[in-house]
Design brief:
Helix content is about 0%, strand content about 50%. The longest helix has 7 residues, at about 10-15. The radius of gyration is 55 Å and the shape is flat.
């Protein structure tokens, strides 16, 4: 084995190396050839109504050409065939919008979870924008303002706030502007266009934030002109990468190749402004940096510490020496290491050269070489930083000889010798292995060079020889062989009873072009042979005789036909099914001879004259059946047997209840009558199956139910009873209510109750035993000036007396209120004869009501809330005057005390006292 290891320059390594971390942003580059992960919209201008025609995952039915994917480049005619539909670096691109017009706005957006592995967003676009004013290539029209011109816009937004990230660096816009330096003009379509452009966005500000704060949204948008008559559309693609400087700095190299990411202008710390620079006299640990400048003028700075990488290239082959036609599996086992940190580096590129005009870029490959010889197979591997190494190993492909099999067509059962003709030696044959393509033969193989084999069956064969060379290479060859068809011996005969002559007639055939030349009969009786084509023979006794006929044709091929010949007296017998009552009994003739006439009888009556009849017996029990069979020679026999027909059960059942409200639970009782024990019950309730004898089943839904019971006896006989509409389930009632007002106060305890019950026709209310009502929506006045919690009960029922009860608590909130008149007339006219305060919410245990004359003397007092002053002192009427009153009272439902003072005038209408 020859192995060569070769280093490749860093510049070549850079050409081979590509990095794509779009696995961090699935399908952002449309690599799945669909819009998975994207959100799209197709709308119209707000001035036309702002209708959203389609939104969600493109493509949209009826609007799919506005969000269309291209997986191969197609030159756009509106850009004078200067823009392909896919970017120069390839892949799949989406067309946003289309050449149609009509106030249309189209959008695509993609949400990115930013991490340190995808903190660089690159978006690629090519835009085509129709000139909206006149087609002169220079603009100058006065019909459209800039805001109304067809446009293309890219914006990157903060997912949480919706604000544009990085200020104006997060947005890019082009419109059909004749003064734009970025656009070219196509006179044929009267359109401005911008060729494929890449712009980068630094997302590092989001890379270490927790979700959802680490998310940004990429939005593409195209707009037709604001007056509806000119189109605007674009081709777009995007990708995620790690924002990093690519440094190719290899072991034993004193220069480093540095490359900044796409999508920017560049200013390196040594003053160079190209994307890729070569740094001479580079040393490990040296730090380099570059400013990334966007088209908007925003600047991001990234740096890189130089660390050399060593590459140890190697691969393994499944076999370094093979035979011609065998495949070899090649697998890379290369490694790479960062010499500064000692950490391993990934191998990212593979390039195989198999020295036969075939190459591959896969990590593993399987190759079959078409010609013998020595092949120097080389593998070039590239590490993640671009350093490479090439290793070459020699592969030896050994030749194989060319051979033929020599055969001669023969008859079956004839020894056949197979010969070998070596057409091209190529290599020394060490061994032979034959497969005669005769799997039914116990000798289907041989290791002789020219063996002999006997084929027992006519047909086409493909004997195969595997010859093995001194290098272990196998050559496999086969040839077609025909074993002639022999004659097909056959005969027919007339069956007779024993002692009569039987005619044997030759029916043998032979392949076209051959004739039968001899016949030989053997009747298996006395050893006598007959050599005529046809023969008569008389057998002395009944039984089965093995009669053979041997024929031979003019190819020398022979065949033997052996047929068992039955000489009657017939031994008659039959079998039958064991069935249940009302099932048909099937009879089968099992006699030891074939017959042509049959008679079946039971109870002295013939029931059939066919060989295998069916019969329905009229009642269960034992029935004697007699069967007589006759052969074509007139020989006959009969036999009688008893047939037993089993009894069926008589299915019956009842229920403990037949109707009721849901949920209705019913006990079913089996009442089946049977001569034999029942060992299986199958009930069908509401399409549900139950396998117990006396089940309990609960019906939930209202309606009629059919009930079916199938019973089966130990003998396997069954009976079915179905009763339609056997169970009736009434619909249920749901009781519920509310009341207004929602808060009830003791000074106004009148409540309106609202009935929310379902399925009810009758109602009974109970207001905590203070009263009741049967109205649907009653009113009830709770005790005035009493704070309490009351239990309200509603019983709702339907016409089937299905009921439901709802309970709710109603709280009357105590309210303190004080009122007192300023005049009263104690003249016994039953009007205003008593002076008493009107108080609600008072504590009757802490109450004092006093009346004073003008000199401060108490002329009346009480601690009873319900007692008032009747205008008397010591049973005498007081004179008409003004008196002072005082009320001391505590609130019943609050920790408050009150003292009220005032005046009252005592009047006696139409009198002077």
């Amino acid at each position: 084995m020859n192995i060569t290891v070769q280093n490749i320059t860093p510049l070549f390594a850079l050409i081979l190396f590509t990095t794509n971390l779009n696995s961090q942003c699935p399908n952002i580059d449309f690599s799945q050839n669909n819009f998975g992960g994207w959100y799209g919209e197709c709308t119209e201008y707000m001035s036309q109504g702002g209708t959203v025609f389609a939104s969600g995952l493109p493509p949209f039915v009826g609007y799919n050409d506005r969000h269309q994917l291209f997986d191969a480049p197609v030159l756009d005619p509106n850009a004078c065939l200067n823009i392909p539909s896919t970017p120069p670096h390839g892949g799949v691109a989406a067309r946003l919008g289309n050449p149609d017009v009509g106030w249309m706005i189209d959008e695509l957006e993609y949400t990115i979870d930013v991490s340190p592995e995808n903190n660089l967003l690159l978006y690629h676009f090519a835009a085509i924008l129709e000139e909206p004013d006149n087609c002169n290539g220079g603009g100058g029209g006065n019909g459209h303002s800039d805001v109304n011109r067809p446009k293309f816009r890219v914006e990157v937004q903060d997912f949480v706030t919706g604000a544009t990230i990085n200020g104006n660096c997060g947005v890019y816009e082009e419109f059909a502007d004749p003064d734009s330096d970025n656009l070219r003009f196509c006179q044929n379509s009267c359109s401005y266009y911008r060729s494929w452009t890449t712009i980068g966005i630094d997302l590092r500000a989001y890379e270490n934030l927790a979700p959802p704060n680490n998310r940004v949204v990429l939005k593409f948008r195209t707009e037709d002109c604001g007056q509806g008559g000119h189109f605007g559309y674009a081709y777009v693609q995007a990708e995620c990468r790690k924002l990093d400087i690519r440094a190719t700095f290899c072991e034993n190299e004193n220069s480093a190749l540095l490359s900044a990411p796409d999508g920017f202008d560049y200013l390196w710390d040594n003053g160079e402004t190209t994307q890729t620079i070569q740094l001479d006299n580079a040393v490990s640990g040296q730090v380099v940096s570059v400013d990334l400048i966007t088209p908007q003028g925003c600047v991001s700075t990234i740096s890189k510490t130089l660390q050399p990488v060593t590459v140890n290239g190697d691969y393994i082959a499944s076999n370094l020496q093979v035979c011609l036609g065998e495949s070899i599996d090649f697998s890379d086992i290369s490694t790479a290491q960062n010499l500064a940190t000692g950490t391993p580096e990934d191998i990212t590129e593979w390039y195989w050269d198999f020295d036969n005009g075939t190459t591959s870029i896969n990590q593993q490959e399987s190759i079959t070489f078409e010609d013998p010889g020595t092949y120097n197979v080389s593998l070039t591997v590239t590490a993640e930083n671009g350093c490479t190494q090439t290793i070459t190993k020699s592969i030896f492909v050994n030749p194989i000889p060319s051979i033929e099999i020599v055969v001669e067509n023969k008859c079956p059962n004839t020894p056949l010798q197979l010969g070998v003709n070596i057409v091209f030696q190529g290599a020394n044959i060490q061994s032979y292995e034959w497969d005669f393509d005769d799997p039914n033969s116990p000798n289907n193989s041989s290791n002789l060079q020219e063996p002999t084999h006997i084929y027992n069956t006519a047909g086409n064969y493909s004997p195969t020889l595997t010859a093995t060379t001194d290098k272990g290479c196998n050559v496999v060859t086969s040839n077609n062989l025909v074993i002639f068809d022999p004659p097909q011996s056959n005969f027919e005969f007339e069956n007779n009873c024993a002692g009569s002559n039987t005619l044997f007639t030759d029916l043998s055939t032979t392949p076209v072009g051959t004739v039968i030349e001899s016949w030989s009969w053997n009747f298996d009786d006395n050893g006598q042979l007959f050599l005529s084509q046809n023969a008569y023979y008389s057998f002395s006794d009944t039984g089965i005789y093995e009669v053979s006929l041997i024929t031979e044709n003019n190819d020398g091929c022979v065949d033997t036909a052996i047929i068992d010949v039955l000489i009657n007296g017939i031994n008659t017998d039959f079998s039958f099914d064991e069935v249940c009552y009302n099932q048909v009994t099937n009879f089968v003739n099992t006699s030891d001879q074939s017959s042509i006439e049959w008679e079946w009888q039971t109870a002295g009556t013939t029931i059939s004259n066919i060989e295998n009849p069916s019969y329905l017996f009229p009642y269960p029990g034992f029935h004697e059946v007699t069967f007589t069979a006759s052969t074509s020679e007139g020989c006959s026999d009969e036999i009688s047997k008893f047939v037993y027909v089993k009894n069926n059960p008589s299915t019956n059942f009842q229920a403990d209840i037949y109707e009721g409200c849901s949920e209705l639970c019913v006990n079913f009782e089996d009442l089946t009558n049977s001569n034999n024990p029942i060992d299986n019950w199958t009930w069908f309730f509401d399409d549900k199956e139950v396998d117990t004898q006396n089940p309990n089943y609960c019906f939930t839904n209202a309606g009629y139910y059919d009930i079916t019971l199938i019973t089966t006896s130990e003998e396997g006989c069954s009976d079915t009873l179905k009763r339609d509409d056997f169970i009736l389930v009434y619909p249920n009632v749901t009781a519920d209510f509310g009341y207004l007002p929602n808060e009830v106060y003791s000074n106004n305890p009148l409540v309106d109750f609202e009935n929310y019950s379902l399925g009810a026709t009758k109602y009974q209310w109970n207001f905590d035993f203070l009263g009741s009502s049967s109205e649907e929506n009653p009113q009830f006045n709770f005790p005035f000036d009493v704070s309490n919690t009351y239990e309200i009960r509603l019983v709702a029922a339907n016409d089937s007396n299905c009921v439901d009860t709802a309970y709710k608590e109603l709280k009357v909130i105590g309210v303190f209120q004080f009122d007192i008149p300023n005049t009263f007339t104690p003249n016994n006219d039953q009007l205003n004869d008593i002076f008493i305060p009107a108080i609600s919410g008072a504590d009757k245990e802490n109450y004092q009501f006093s009346i004073f004359d003008r000199w401060g003397n108490i002329i009346f007092e009480t601690q009873n809330l319900n007692e008032g002053w009747d205008g008397k002192i010591k049973e005498k009427d007081i004179k008409q005057d003004v008196y002072v009153w005082q009320v001391e009272v505590d609130e019943r439902d609050a920790d408050k005390s009150h003292v009220f003072n005032g005046h009252v005038t005592v009047l006696y209408p139409n009198a002077l006292k």
